[in-house]
Amino acid sequence: MDRITKPRVVKDYDKLPSDTQNQIKLQYPFGFADHLVTYTNSRKEIVSALPFEAEDYYYLVRMTREEAHEIIENDDDYDDDGTLRDDFEMEGLETGEDVDEIEDVEDVPDEDEDDEDDDDY
Fold this sequence. Notes:
This protein is an alpha+beta fold. It contains 2 helices and 4 strands; from the N terminus they run βαβββα.
């Protein structure tokens, strides 16, 4: 029996479409830090990321533990305790993904200036 696998996408949280961010918030209503996994990237560096399986893609959302806490702390959709607010609205939540917005399929990291700072991982 053939197993169909979803393409893997590695991205930074702030570079994800807002509907994908909203889906991640629903899956992790109590924050991200306790759900991070580590893997070795193509440059043989150990990187931490938040796993998230969407309808068409399997995401590894790059972030350190500190960044995970900071994202929640600065997001108005989470309360002061780091819990997704009860009045969280799903605006912008669409079904499916827009492939044009996906730049790095097949577990290829973003090639941006910001990635130079990956030494924190």
